[in-house]
Specification:
Layout lengths: L1 H60 L1
Length: 62
């Protein structure tokens, strides 16, 4: 009986460690995705700033 309990607990421990590893991998993947999206959004924001700057320059020059 004690051996069965020990085996069961060992199995549960291995499962938990595996789940923690999976969660860590998913967390890293999501951080990478958000970083990529953030970089794209910053690029789009920069494009709008350049467009607005050129409009202001055009208005001031004319």
């Amino acid at each position: 009986m004690d051996k069965q309990i020990l085996d069961l607990l060992t199995g549960v421990s291995k499962e938990i460690k595996s789940m923690k590893s999976d969660i860590y991998d998913l967390k890293s993947e999501m951080h990478n995705r958000f970083d990529t999206i953030e970089a794209k959004l910053e690029g789009v924001g920069g494009q709008f700033e350049l467009t607005n700057e050129s409009r202001i320059t055009d208005i001031v020059m004319h």
